[in-house]
Amino acid sequence: QVQLVESGGGLVQAGGSLRLSCAVSRNIGTNRVMAWYRQAPGKQREWVAQILLDSRVNYADSVKGRFTISRDNAKNTLYLQMNSLKPEDTAVYYCYAVPTYWGQGTQVTVSS
């Protein structure tokens, strides 16, 4: 069964940190291009970060220098370390795996 399950969201004050995790079912695995997206209320879903097969990473300008994407293939888990959080980072965060696998999302709320 195809499954991506995010966890680690919550409420945090501005300037704080959170680490999101995405547990990926074994039949998919994390040894593929994977990414994090987010969707704020009333806005379209936007790309946040990606990690390629060779482990190169890319980030949206809005999170560059603050967020770090990583994965542990042995644990079939994708991570997103989020530091120096801002109120504008408030959104539902989704894990994505090529070609079309999505998680159900985890809420991140940053208070000012």
What can you see in these coordinates?
- The chain has 112 residues and is mainly beta.
- It is built from no helices and 11 strands.
- It has strands at 4-7, 10-13, 18-24, 34-39, 46-51, 57-59, 67-72, 77-82, 91-97, 101-102, 106-111.
- The strands form 2 sheets. Strands 2, 4, 5, 6, 9, 10 and 11 form a 7-stranded mixed sheet that branches. Strands 1-3-8-7 form a 4-stranded antiparallel sheet, with no helix packed on it.
- The mean pLDDT is 96.
Largest sheet descriptor? 7 strands, mixed
Count of separate DSSP helical elements: 0
What general form does the structure show? globular
Structural class: mainly beta
The rounded Rg comes to: 13 Å
Global mean pLDDT: 96
Order of helices and strands: EEEEEEEEEEE
Q: Give the proportion of residues in helices.
A: under 10%
The low-confidence parts are none
- Topology, number of strands: 11
N-C termini distance: 40 Å
Q: How much of the residues is beta strand, in percent?
A: over 45%
